[in-house]
Amino acid sequence: MNTPHPALHLSDRIAELLADPAALPSTWTAHPSWRQSLAHGAPGIALLHVERAATGRGRWETAAAWLSVASSGPVTRGPDSYLYYGAPALTHALDCAARARPGAYRTALAHLDRAAAEDALHRCAQARARLARGDLPALAEFDTIRGLAGLGSLLLRRESGGRALREVLACLVRLTEDTKDGGDVLPGWWTPDGPSGKPDARFPGGHGNNGLAHGIAGPLALLSLALCSGMEVPGQQEAIRTVLAWLERRRSGHTWPYWTTRNHLRPGLKLSAQRPSWCYGTAGVARAQQLAALALDDQRLRHTAEDALASALSNTAALAATTDLSACHGLAGLAHIAHRAAADADPPGAARLRAATALLLDTAHPPRTDPDRQARHLLDTAGPALLEGAAGTALALLAPATGTAPTTGWDSCLLTA
What's the superkingdom here (predicted)? Predict the structure, then answer.
C-alpha cells in the first residue's frame, strides 16, 4: 500500500471544516445560486463528502446531508441549466453517490436523466439552427462549463449509447468543420466574442478558445472519452484529428496559449504561453490530447502529450505563475491531472508524471505546514467552492495524495477522465 502524502492531512482538515451545512456562514450560503451551483455551492461540497465516504475517509451521513441541501428546493432545468448549475449539477452529484451505493437515489436520478436528455436535445436543435443561419457559435454552446461538452460528459456516465448523447457528439463533430468569416477560414468553434462569452473590444475579430473549461479542448476530451467507451458517431475520429491538428499548429514548444485571435492566424506572430492549469493552458490541453491519443491508439501522440505535460509541470517559470491551490487553476488541480495522466502513461512518461505529482503535492502542502491553519486560511481567502475554493482543493488532492483513482469518478465533470 502506498504511504499517503502529508497533503492528505490538508484535504482531511478542509473536509472536517465543511462537514456541517448548518455551520457555514451566511456570507457563503445566502447567494441565490448557492444551492444549485456545482462550481460555487452545495453540490460541489457534496462531491467532496461523497468521494470521502466512498473511500472510507468520511461518513455517508455527511454526504447525505449535503446532497439534501442541494436537492432541498426546485431544481433549475432548461436553458438556464448546465453541467455546473441546476439539474445537471445535482445529477452529477447524485450519480457519484449512486456509483458507490448502487440503487441509491434511483427515483430522483430517473427524473433527472429525462430532464438532461430533453435539455441536451433542445441544445442540439439550437446548435443546428445556428449552423443553418451561418452564425458563429457562442462558447456556451459547446464548452465544458455551460455547453454541450459538459452535458455530454454527464450523458456519457448516465446514458451510454442513448439518443441524446449521440446527438451531442454529432453536434460537436459538426463544430469542427471549417467556416468562413470576413475572408478568413476559421475553425467551426471560433466565437465572435471574448473569452468571457461577451463582446470584448480586445477581441475585435473574436477568438478561438483552446482551454479545457471554455474552449475546444473540452469537446476534444468528450469525443475521445466517448470513443474510448465504444460510443462513436460518423466523423468522430476525423473530428478528433481536426482538433488535434489545430492544437499542433498553435503549440509553441511544450505549451499552448489560452486562445487564438485573428492576428494570431497571420504568419510571423509568436504565440505567448501562460501558466499551466486545468481551465486554460498546457495541463488541461495536454490531458485532452492524451485522451485523444488513447482513443485513436496513437502511441506517438500519447508520448507527445505526456512529454508536454511533464515538461510544463517541471517548468519553474511556468509554475511560478501558479499562485493558489485550487482545482481550476492551482497546484491541487495540476497534481490531480498529473496523477490521472500518469495512470495512463507508459513507464518513462509515468515516472516523470509521478515525480511531478509529488513535487506539486510538496508545494501545495510544504513539510511541517500546519494543516488546520492552512485549511482555515484557505477557507477565509478562497471560500468553500469546488472550482476555485477549498472543497475543490481537498477533492483534487485526495487521489494523488493516496495514490489511488477517484472511487466515484467525480472528475468526469472536469473531462479529465
Answer: Bacteria
Q: How far is CA 3 from CA 6, 7, 63, 403, in A?
A: 9, 12, 26, 8
Dist CA 47 CA 179 (whole Å): 40
On whether the CB atoms of residues 201 and 195 are closer than 8 A, the answer is: no
pTM (2 d.p.): 0.97
One pLDDT digit (tens) per residue for the chain, 417 residues: 478 999 999 999 999 999 999 999 999 999 989 999 999 999 999 999 999 999 999 999 999 999 999 999 999 999 999 999 999 999 999 999 999 999 999 999 999 999 999 999 999 999 999 999 999 999 999 999 999 999 999 999 997 669 999 999 999 999 999 998 878 889 999 999 999 999 999 999 999 999 999 999 999 999 999 999 999 999 999 999 999 999 999 888 888 989 999 888 766 555 555 789 999 999 999 999 999 999 999 999 999 999 999 999 988 877 888 989 999 999 999 999 999 999 999 999 999 999 999 999 999 999 999 999 999 999 999 999 999 999 999 999 999 999 999 999 999 999 999
Collect all residues with Cβ–Cβ distance below 8 Å to 171 and sequence separation of at least 6: 123, 124, 127, 128, 142, 148
Contact status, residue 166 vs residue 232, Cβ threshold 8 Å: no
Residue 186: DSSP 8-state: E
Any known ligand binding at 49? no
- Rg of the chain (C-alpha set): 20
Rama region for 105: left / alpha / beta (φ>0; ψ in -120 to 50; rest): left
Cα(214)–Cα(193) distance, integer angstroms: 12
Place of cell 508524471: 353
User: Closest by alpha carbon to 289, among 220, 225, 190?
Assistant: 220
DSSP state of 346: -
Reading the block at residue 296, the C-alpha cell is: 485513436
Nearest to 356 by CA among 329, 333, 323: 333
E strands along 102-157, which residues? none
Say if residue 279 carries a ligand binding annotation: yes
CA distance readout (Å), 5 to 128, 326, 362, 364, 366 = 49, 18, 8, 11, 11
HSE-CB of 384 using CA atoms within 13 angstroms: 30
Q: What is the grid cell recorded at 113?
A: 436523466
